[in-house]
Amino acid sequence: MKKHVIILSALVALACTSCQKDYKCVCTNSNTGNTSYGDPIKGNVFTKKAAEESCKANNDLSAGGLENCHLED
Asked: What are the tens digits of pLDDT across the range 16-50?
């Protein structure tokens, strides 16, 4: 039974690390119309939602300077 738990744990850990992607927060500068790309964010299916919310928060933090912030793969 102990072997099954170890093998299952290893498979779950492997599945979580293999799903990692690099996302970038992309925003449009409302003053110039230029597109700005943020630093790459390493994420997976569990952290993508938090990264999306953080990226969208740039709309409010920039005092209207940035708009349409979203994640891209």
From this structure: 555 778 889 999 998 899 998 988 888 887 888 88
- Return the C-alpha torsion angle 46, 53, 34, 73, nearest 10: 10
13, 5 contact by CB (below 8 A): no
pTM of the model: 0.63
Token pair for residue 65? Answer: 């300077």
Side chain identity at residue 25, one-letter code: C
What lies within 8 Å, CB to CB, of 35 at 6+ separation is 26, 27, 28, 29
Q: What is the DSSP string of 9-72?
A: HHHHHHHHHHT-EEEEEEEEETTT--EEEEEEEEE-TTTHHHHHHHHHTHHHHTTTSEEEEEEE
Residue 41, beta-bridge partner list = 23
